Amino acid sequence: AIAALKGRGTVVWIAIQGGDTGGGTGAEERAIQAVDRISDLASQSNLRVALYPHYGFYLARFRDVVRVAERTARSNVGVTFNLCHELRSGFDREFHQLLDKAIPRLYGVTINGADRRGRDWATLIQPLGRGDYDVTGLVRTITRAGYRGPFGIQCYGLKGDPGVYLKQSMAAWRAVSTAASQ
User: Fold this and answer.
1) For 89-142, how does the pLDDT look when each residue is reduced to its tens digit (9 = 90+)?
2) What is the pTM of this model?
3) Where is 99: in which H helix or E strand?
4) pLDDT digits over 135-145, tens only?
């Protein structure tokens, strides 16, 4: 699949499952070996690889993907920030320091509406513009840190008509991006 993507400017997202979340040594070395192998394959097709944090996976938090990307020291390996998974894992108190470290490798940011104290996916993944989490403040923080890449909207598990949610989310994105730039 990676070879078929050659020349398309694709970023290959990978999420790494497994035990010992947050830096267990055996799991850490296996994760780095896997990332190195995927990086080698991707580099043959001139593609970048973004480590994707996912609640309950080995790389569950932004902190985890930043750590592993740094340890691989591969020029085509970067990271993704994912709002709902970071909230579910417990938003890192050192986010600003992590963001500063990650900016050269930050290949993507996914956002959505969410409740600050949400505990399940229904409260942590809502259409953009819903929930009480300050998405505008987050986007402002990330762009002021120097990020100029794509923002994606997380819509996993939303019930109802996707066309309606997309329309609502795009209107909310216009408002968020305008307010964040001020």
Assistant:
1) 998 889 999 999 999 999 999 999 999 999 999 999 999 999 999 999 999 999
2) 0.92
3) helix 95-102
4) 999 999 999 99
Q: Which string of DSSP letters, residue by residue, matches 111-136?
A: E-B--TT--SHHHHSB-TT-SSS-HH
Q: In a 10 Å sphere around its CB, with 0-12 CB exposed, 13-18 middle and 19+ buried, how is residue 9 labelled?
A: exposed
Nearest CA-CA partner of 27 in 50, 58, 1, 51 = 58
Q: Rounded distance, CA 103 to CA 100, Å? A: 6
The CA distance from 14 to 137, in Å, is: 27
Neighbours of 22 (CB within 10 A): 14
Q: Is 160 left (phi over 0), alpha (psi -120 to 50) or beta?
A: left
Whether the Cβ atoms of residue 103 and residue 142 lie closer than 8 Å to each other: no
Are 22 and 64 within 8 A, CB to CB? yes
Q: What does the DSSP assignment read for 30-71?
A: HHHHHHHHHHHHHHHTT-EEEE---TTSSS-SHHHHHHHHHH
Report how far apart, in Å, the C-alpha atoms of 81 and of each of 8, 10, 37, 59 are: 22, 17, 22, 12
What angle is formed at CA 108 by the lines to CA 96 and CA 60, rounded to 5 degrees?
65
Of 179, 13, 7, nearest to 108 by C-alpha is 13
